[in-house]
């Protein structure tokens, strides 16, 4: 093309290019406006707890009027320092493993103060500790209600100690409105008595509300090593050490900040059981395919190749995930960090058992780890469910209850009909 012809063509293209650029800028500004609005929208929100430790707890709520709110804890009362609609009241100096009754008072709100209590985290081992895990629970409706109701009926009068949220806690974009609809309204009875310990899911991360709602321990307030980040942290109570990991926005490299913290944290654990939680599963053939490097943009592959070797090195007993909308559970396995076609049962299985396993009392990596996906606490679908790592796989709504003693861990997947759809256990040999 001659110079004249080139210039002539550019003159014709210039208005089109300018229009495209302006359109792209307007779209970006519009999207930012939507994200900003959805993330910062003020909504009234009933009191809930965060940053629960053995000696302290934080109460948060949002009132329609700016006012001084107070929390009354038996003979103590702690109040906001100034009028606000965003209340944040921290109480410390508490006794470990102790139940406290409390009430919250905020003049412009009608707060239900019936049966409000909590129990500080345990420092010493417990005879039994119960942990409830829900994954991809953020679709409000009858399915979510059925899963929640059946687990509460299964628990009955048994005490629940910890509540874990495995990500995608508010569909479809993690907005303030969606968190109210999918978390704060349906789970209101449990929020009065238990702290929701959460990891970030890909749907939660579409807005900024997750970071506004949840406050995580960064200085080892709840046990473990200081992470210096709210994106990943440790939690200890009774017999259990739990690492809550960021598989969506975090650095998943083998020598990244989170990996370095994992080495530091897990090398110092003195609890008999270690559980890891991350939203993206390292092994799945459910609604997501962990073999694909393009499914979820490498996150499942990075979890398997970079994070699982660290967890297994320190003898992690159980890895919980969501993201894939079904239920999948492995035997005790170790050493499989490649695609599913490279899985060799003779090499990677650490037990001939299918449901009930035995490990040594030491944190030995050769004993293996159970990988458990609980991604159906509010939605599910028809998926292959044929990953060779998984012993049990199906598309059924439900949630997981763990019962943990110093020598035994049991998992019960309770479906939306109240059936125990899967039951597994790990027993640790006590050596004299």
Q: Could you name the key traits of this structure?
A:
single chain; about 425 residues; alpha/beta; Immunoglobulin-like; 3 domains; seven-stranded mixed β-sheet
Helix content: 10-25%
> How would you describe the shape?
globular
CATH class of the largest domain: Alpha Beta
Strand residue content: 25-35%
CATH architecture of the largest domain: 4-Layer Sandwich
Low-confidence stretches: none
Question: Structural class of the helix and strand makeup?
Answer: alpha/beta
The CATH superfamily of the largest domain appears as: Metallo-dependent phosphatases
| Arithmetic mean pLDDT | 94
Task: Tell me the count of domains.
Answer: 3
* CATH topology (fold) name of the largest domain: Purple Acid Phosphatase, chain A, domain 2
With strands numbered from the N-terminus, the spatial order across the biggest sheet is 10-9-8-19-20-21-16
Give the oligomer, counting copies of the same chain as homo and different chains as hetero: single chain
Radius of gyration: 24 Å
Q: Main sheet, how many strands, which sense, barrel?
A: 7 strands, mixed
Helix-strand pattern: HEEEEEEEEHEHHEHEEHEHEEHEEEEEE
Count of DSSP H/I helices: 8
């Amino acid at each position: 093309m001659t110079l004249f012809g080139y210039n002539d063509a550019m003159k014709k293209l210039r208005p089109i290019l300018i229009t495209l650029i302006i359109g792209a800028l307007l779209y970006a500004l519009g999207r930012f406006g939507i994200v900003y609005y959805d993330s910062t929208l003020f909504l009234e929100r009933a009191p809930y707890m965060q940053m629960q430790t053995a000696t302290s707890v934080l109460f948060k709520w949002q009132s329609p009027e700016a006012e001084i709110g107070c929390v009354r804890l038996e003979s103590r009362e702690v109040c906001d320092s100034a009028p606000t609609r965003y209340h944040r009241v921290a109480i410390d100096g508490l006794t470990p493993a102790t139940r406290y009754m409390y009430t919250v008072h905020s003049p412009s709100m009608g707060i239900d103060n019936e049966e409000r209590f909590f129990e500080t985290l345990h420092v010493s081992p417990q005879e039994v500790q119960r942990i409830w895990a829900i994954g991809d629970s953020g679709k409000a409706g009858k399915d979510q209600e059925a899963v929640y109701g059946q687990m509460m009926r299964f628990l009955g009068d048994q005490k629940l100690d910890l509540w874990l949220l495995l990500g995608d806690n508010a569909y479809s974009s993690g907005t303030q409105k969606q968190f109210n609809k999918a978390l704060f309204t349906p789970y209101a009875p449990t929020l009065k008595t238990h702290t929701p310990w959460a990891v970030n899911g890909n749907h939660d991360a579409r807005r900024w509300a997750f970071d506004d709602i949840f406050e995580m321990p960064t200085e080892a307030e709840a046990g473990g090593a200081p992470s210096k980040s709210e994106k990943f942290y440790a939690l200890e109570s009774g017999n259990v050490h739990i690492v809550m990991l960021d598989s969506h926005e975090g650095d998943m490299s083998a020598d990244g900040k989170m990996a370095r913290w994992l080495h530091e944290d897990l090398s110092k654990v003195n609890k008999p059981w270690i559980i890891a939680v991350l939203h993206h599963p390292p092994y799945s053939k459910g609604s997501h395919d962990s073999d694909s490097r393009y499914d979820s943009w490498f996150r499942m592959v990075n979890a398997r190749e970079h994070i699982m070797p660290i967890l297994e090195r320190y003898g992690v007993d159980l890895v919980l995930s969501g993201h894939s909308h079904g239920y999948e559970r492995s035997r005790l396995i170790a050493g499989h960090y490649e695609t599913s076609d490279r899985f060799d049962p003779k090499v990677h299985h650490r037990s001939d058992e299918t449901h009930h396993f035995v490990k040594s009392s030491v944190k030995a990596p050769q004993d293996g780890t159970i990988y458990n996906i609980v991604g159906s606490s509010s939605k599910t679908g028809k998926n292959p469910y044929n990953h060779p790592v998984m012993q049990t796989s199906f598309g059924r709504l439900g949630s997981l209850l763990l019962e943990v003693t110093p020598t035994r861990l049991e998992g019960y997947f309770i479906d939306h009909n109240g059936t125990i759809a899967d039951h597994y256990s790990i027993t640790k040999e006590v050596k004299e």
